[in-house]
Amino acid sequence: MKKHSGQDRSLTSRWRPATQAVRGGTWRSEHGETSEALYLTSGYTYDTAEDVAARFAGEQAGMQYSRFQNPTVQMLEERIALMEGAEACKAQATGMAAMTSALLCMLSSGDHVVAGRAAFGSCRWILDNVLNRFGITHSIVDARENEQWRDAIQPNTKVFFFETPANPTLDIVDLEYVCGLARENGITTIVDNAFATPILQRPLDFGADVVAYSATKLMDGQGRVLAGAVCGTDEWINGKLSPFQRNTGPIISPFNAWVVLKGLETLELRAMRQSENALKVGKFMATRVERMLHPGLPSHPQHNLVRKQMTAAGPIFSFILEDRAQAMAMLNAMQLCDISNNIGDSRTLLCHPASTTHNNMGPQKRAEAGVEEGMIRINVGLEDPDDIIEDLDQALTAVGL
User: Fold this and answer.
1) Under the phi-then-psi rule, with left for phi > 0, alpha for psi from -120 to 50, and beta for the rest, what region is 32?
2) 129, 207, 219, 331 — which has fewest CB within 10 A?
3) pLDDT of 70-108, one tens digit each?
4) pLDDT digits (tens, 9 = 90+) for 110-135
5) Given 213, 246, 264, which residue is the final one in a domain?
6) Structural domain span for residue 357
7) How far is CA 299 from CA 196, 202, 275, 293, 321, in A?
8) Are residues 89 and 183 in the same domain?
9) What is the Cα gyration radius of the chain?
């Protein structure tokens, strides 16, 4: 197999994002296929015993085993790295595999992590129930407040870990300030960018060290496969993450990697259109409910920061009703839009975070994270926004709003 003659980094790094999303990282075999090949293989053969010995010794380039690397997976990694503006990327089986690997590959007993209060429920669970078992402590801060990051630093702080926009409160973190603070103190920043993707926000441009993804979300974008990705420098990816990943095994399957590759081709179109739809739907919802958490609206307290570091506010926002009972009644009244805990899908999906994605946190930690009982999170899809609005309108009316 040979790489396409145009696929050298000096060329592809100059391409604009839309071009990178379609053509970045493409390999072609001797058959000259236009679409990326799907290499469904667990192992590889070698011309000589000396060749395989040289590969395992790191003296010869080439595939060894698909837990280590696979051509389809490597194409995905090269493409995501290009889009992110990163030197390297490793793809994982799921978004949580990406988050867990990014943390565990560099933390040891006695280390300390500072994390944003608002985060996906499983990310908080990792902090509370995995890292602590290995003697790794953490502090939770309101990630919107810059001074809380500075105040939380301890002599053993190794990582700042946060989402922006955050799930499901849509908290926004000042990337330039927090990443700059981390660099001043020799701390590595790990940013969960799943709500935005590199189309809407590139944390590395603001000084982040590591960017992690649930590629299940907008990158696939059509609710088909599970996938994750972590981007960073060559030194960090190959020196810290790769040895951990190849020996613990959270590698993505070639089929799932191929599906995400195809999803990336339309990522910009989907992310921008869904952001436009979400803004229109959000403006309507602001006339029907008292409390909105939509970073694209001027009413959001961090709207100006969104405009500074994002090209669009994304397809996801939250709103808060009176209580859990009213929230669930509204969900049950929806006729077009689906009840689902997924996000990033091309379909409009709604869920009640307190009873789903953040249920395992318990009521006290949910309250600390800003996840209220009446909160509903919505992922606005590619349907006609007027149809989405009509469905939301009738459901709100059905519960007396």
Assistant:
1) left
2) 129
3) 999 999 999 999 999 999 999 999 999 999 999 999 999
4) 999 999 998 888 898 999 999 999 99
5) 264
6) 268-398
7) 20, 24, 17, 9, 17
8) yes
9) 21
